[in-house]
Please model this.
Amino acid sequence: MTEESVVNEKSAEHMAKDHREISISQFFEKNRHLLGYDNKIKALLTIIKEGVDNALDATEEARILPDIYIKIEEIDKETYRIVIRDNGPGIIRAQISKIFGKLLYGSKFHRLRQSRGQQGIGISGAVLYAQLTTGESTKILTSTGKGKTHKIEMKIDVKTNEPKILKDEVIDGKEWKGTQITIVVEGIYREHKQSVIEYLKQTAISNPFANITFDSPNGRVEFKRAVDHLPKEPKEIKPHLYGIEVGIMTRMLQETKGRSILGFLTTEFSRVGKKSAEDICKKAGIDDKISPKKIEHSQIVEMVKAIKEVKLSRPPTDCLSPLTQELVEAGLSKELNPEFVTSISRPPTVYRGWPFQIEVGIAYGGSIKEASVMRLANRVPLLYQSGDCAISKAVAGVDWKRYGLSGDKIPDAPVTIFVHMSSVWVPFTSESKEAIASYTTIIKEIKLALQDCARKLSIYLSGIRKAERIAEKRRIYEKYAHETAVALNELTGDEKEKIEKAILKIVEEKWGEIEQELIEENDKETGVEKEDENK
Amino acid sequence: MTEESVVNEKSAEHMAKDHREISISQFFEKNRHLLGYDNKIKALLTIIKEGVDNALDATEEARILPDIYIKIEEIDKETYRIVIRDNGPGIIRAQISKIFGKLLYGSKFHRLRQSRGQQGIGISGAVLYAQLTTGESTKILTSTGKGKTHKIEMKIDVKTNEPKILKDEVIDGKEWKGTQITIVVEGIYREHKQSVIEYLKQTAISNPFANITFDSPNGRVEFKRAVDHLPKEPKEIKPHLYGIEVGIMTRMLQETKGRSILGFLTTEFSRVGKKSAEDICKKAGIDDKISPKKIEHSQIVEMVKAIKEVKLSRPPTDCLSPLTQELVEAGLSKELNPEFVTSISRPPTVYRGWPFQIEVGIAYGGSIKEASVMRLANRVPLLYQSGDCAISKAVAGVDWKRYGLSGDKIPDAPVTIFVHMSSVWVPFTSESKEAIASYTTIIKEIKLALQDCARKLSIYLSGIRKAERIAEKRRIYEKYAHETAVALNELTGDEKEKIEKAILKIVEEKWGEIEQELIEENDKETGVEKEDENK
Model:
C-alpha cells in the first residue's frame, strides 16, 4: 500500500453517512428510458399505450364492449395535452389516487390471469413523466354510474412514491360510467412506423371488438368495431409446480392454511392430484402428513428436486383468452383489406410453469404493399426493440423459400405477418414492455404457427400461379389454332374460320385432360407438402 | 352492447378488491432477468460482477489499493458457493442489513460522482436470487479494523423489501479490515466469452491497480497489480442547469435554503455565476429577489425555457475519474501482451447536463489472435447486450478501411479495441447494466476517440509494411548484385566476387536515397493523414 493511500484512507463511518433509501419513483424518474420515455416522440406513444391498455383491460374485465376516445392536441411548442376516455366500470374513490399516483401498485401483478397490464407501473409512470417534463398535474374524471363523478387532480410525491392530491371534487347529476384522464407532457407528434397511429391501427386489428376514435393533431381517425362480442373471459388459476423454486416454495409453506404437506400440494397448486402429491413426498423422503410449517429447509430443497421427477398435468388454460382465428382474420381483414388471409391458433402450452398460447395470421396482397411483422402480447402491439424479440427471431428462423416465398429473414412479398402471444405472464425484456424474452419453447411455438400459415399461403399462391399458367397455355393453344387454320387454308383451300373452329373444339373437348396434366406438373415444381411438426 | 356482456358486467367495487402494492423485491423476484439472472450461466457472472464492483468501489472510495479474493465452488449439481472478500474499510453494523437486504438502497444513486454502482440494486439482487433458487441465506463477515468482526446471516423479506436477520454475532480479537460475503446459488460454471473469467480479465485490464485472486472450480487464476497508485479521487458535484426539467426544478425550489431565486440558482447548481442567474431571471420575467418558495408554476416553466437560451459554463469534470492513457496502456499490456498499444483520453464533455469522458485503447498483435471489443463503463466490463450498446454502434460506425484495416463493422485484424466511458451517471439500457444507451453525443465522442487510435495504429502498421517493403527491395538489389556480377564475369572475365562487392558497395552508399524514395512512395499509397474532427 502506498504512503498516499494510507494518508487519505477513509473510514467506514465516514462512508456510511451517505446511505439512503431510493424510492421507486425516484429510480424511474432518473431512469425514465426504462419505462419507454427515451425521447419526445416515443413519450407520446408510451402514454397512449399505457392509457389505452388500461382502458381495454378495464372494459374487458367488466365485460363491456369498449368505446375508447383519444385526443392529442398541441398546446405549445413540443407540449401536448392528451385525453383518453373509456366506457369502463369507473374507479372507486379509494383506488383512484393509488392507481395513478403510486408506482408498483395494481391488481394484475399478483394474479395468474391474462391481462394487458401486469406490472403496476404503466399509468403512474405517465403521471410521473408529465410532472417531470411540464410540471403539470394529471386530471382524472371517473364515475361508477351512480350519478356521481369524481374529479381529481394529482401528482406523485417522488420521495415517498405516494399520491399527492391537489384537487378532489364530486360532481353530481351526470349519469355516465367510465374514466377519463388528461395528461400534459413534453412530446413530438409524428405519424411514422413506430407512432401512435400505427399503435392504434394494430390495436384495432388485435381488438376488433373495440371502437376507437382518435382526434389527432391532423384530424379524426376512426377504427370501427368489427365484431360485437368479447373474447372469452380468462379465469384466474393457481400456480403450477413446474415453475416453483425453493424461495417461493418456502414462502408458500409458511403462508398456507393446509394442515399437511399433502393438503398443501393438492390445494395451493394447479392440477396436483393426491397420487402426484404422494409421489413427490415419497421421492423427497417426507412424511406427507407432516404440517407445512414444520418442514425443514433441506426437505424443501428435496421437494423441489422431486417435483422435477414427477409427471404432472399441465396447468389449466382457461386463464388465457386467445383471440381465436375468427378475430385474428376479422381484425386483419377490416384494417388491411387483403386479397387473402389465413390464421392459426396453436394449442396452449407452458414455459416455466406459465401457460401461454400463440396465434398467427398472415394477410396477403390487397392494400398491403410490402412485408411487415406485427408483434403482439396479450393483444397489445409491440413497436420497439424488435431485434431483441422472440417473435422477430422466430420469423427470421422460418425458411420462407420452402413456401415459395423469396427473401431471407422476412418474405419478399406483400404480406403482413401477425403474431400474438397470450399468457398469464409475458416475459418482457424491460419495464417498457416492448419485446418478448427469447425462451426456446416460445420461439418454437411461434415457428410452428408461422410454418402452418406459410404453408396455407403457399397453397393459395401456387393456386394463383397454377391458374395463371393454365390460362397462359390455353392462350397459346388458341393462338396456335388460328395459325394452324391459316396454314391449312393455304394448303387445302378450306375455309379458315371453319378449320379454326374445328381445332378450338378439339382443344375445348381435350381441355380437362390437359389441365390435369398441367396441375400435376405445377405441383411437382413448387413442391407443396405438409411439414413434419416435430422437425 | 350485447345482451351477454350486460349480464356479466362487473362493478368497479368488485374490481377494486384485488388492488395491492407490489414491493420492489417482489417485482424483481418475478422479473429477475431484468437484473441479469436470465439463466444459470449468466447468474454466476452477475453475482461476481455485483460483488467485485462493490469491493472495488469500497476500496477505491476509502483510497485503499484493492486486494480482491473470489472463490467459486460447486457444492452440489448446479449449486455453487461463492465467496467474495475485499480489503476495504468494512461496513458499520447499522448499514450492513440494509445494504444487503433492501433493494433500492445505497449512497451512489443520489450523489453526482463517478462510481461503479449507481442504482442500489446490485448486491441485494444477488441475495434475493440466492434465497429464491437455493433458499440459502447470505453470510456477511465485516470489520472496520477495531478488532471486532460482525458475522451476519440474512435474507430479504420480499413482501416488505426489508432485511430479515437470521444470525447476528460479534467476534472479538481478530485484527483485519474488509468485507467478505458468501452466497449459495443455482448456477452453471463455464469459461467462454461471456464468463466470470473474461469479466475478471477485463476488470484487471481496466483496474490495473487491483490485485485479483480467483479460485475457480478449475483452479487458481491470479491477476496481479500492475501499477501501485489509484486513479485520482472523483469529487462530488452539484447538478448542472442544462439537465434540469420542470419537475426537478419545482422540487428543488421547494427544498432550497436559498432566500432569493438569485441565491438559489448560484448556490444549488454547478457553475452558475451571478450574471447568468440574472440573465435567466430576466429572460423568464422573474424578479430575481423573490423567494424560491413563492415562485409560481408558470414562472418555473418560463425559467426552464430561459435556461436553454442562456450560455452556461460546462459542469466541472473533477467528478470524473478517468483511467488516463497510462493506466489504459498498462492494463492492456499486462493482460494481452500485445506487439503494439495506443490510447487516447478525450477531454470530458456533457450529455443531458451530466459530465462524461471517453477513453479508447487499441492493442495489436502479440498474444492477440483475433478482433474483439471490450466495452467498459466506470471501469466495469460489459459482457452482454452488445448489439444495443452505444460502444458497439460507434465501433461499427468507423470506416476501418480508411486506416488500412479491412473488415466491415470491426477490423479484420488481431486487435483488441478497449472503450471506456466514465460518467457520474451512465445511461444503462436496463437494470442489469449491460449496455449504454445510444445518446448521439456519446456515440460521437467514442467515434472520435476510435478514429484517433485507429490513425495511430495505421501509422504503426504502415511502418511495419514500409520496413517490410524496404527490406524486400534491398533483397532484390542484393540478388541483382549477384546476378549482375555473374553476367559481368562472363562478359569481362573479371572476378565475380570483386564485381559483386563493388555493386553492393554502391547499393550501400546509395541506400539512404533509395530508402527515402521508398518511404515517400509508401506514404502516398497508404494515404495516412490526420482526420478532421469536425467531420
Summary: Residues 440-492 of chain A form the longest helix (53 residues). Residues 242 and 353 of chain A are 5 Å apart (CA to CA). Chain A has a mean pLDDT of 89.
